[in-house]
Amino acid sequence: MLYQIGKVLSWAAAKSIGRMTVIGRENIPRKGGVMVCGNHVSYADPPVLGAACPRPLHYMAKIELFRVPVLGKLIEWVGAFPVQQRTADRAALKKAVEYLEKGEAVGMFPEGQRVFGGQLGEPLPGVGMIVLRAKAPVVPAALIDTARFLPPHKFFPRFARVKVVFGKPLDLSDLYDKPGREAVEEVGNRIMSAIRELIEKHR
Prior knowledge:
The chain is an alpha/beta fold. Helices cover 38% and strands 16% of the residues. The chain has 7 helices and 7 strands. Helix 4 (90-101) runs parallel beside helix 5 and helix 5 (125-134) packs across helix 7. The protein starts with a helix and ends with a helix.
């Protein structure tokens, strides 16, 4: 219930202030586990992506957010789970795989943090490790102009023209049985390449 309330409020803000356009919602599988992976440029990205996605998303969020009074409980209640950034957090990876194996949708920002300046960052190994373990489809998502909607260090949204573009699910099955770091890195690189193509096409 709380997730739906948050989604409605996020949708209302993104449509009325962000004038959000959503493209490719039909590319999100209606059933089964799926990873939705987007670029990350604004604190608005999680609620905007959640508002645009037709399915509830479980987000991996940095553990520091769970220690913030009120906010920590809110994000926990809407299905987010903590991760220790820049570490091999096995508990967080296991949680993501469990959600996917139960047929739920997981939202993730492979860069692991906001990246400014119009460039995409390098994907962290976690996204590749999750995909290879869960063998779930991955839908790339481009978040365009969310940094205009909620700029860095600002607390209130501004008028913008936000786009959320969902690409077709990626076929990564050729990497499922390949061991080692190379396969993990290749998963992340393919995901970021797909996101880059969506941004360049729809910017």
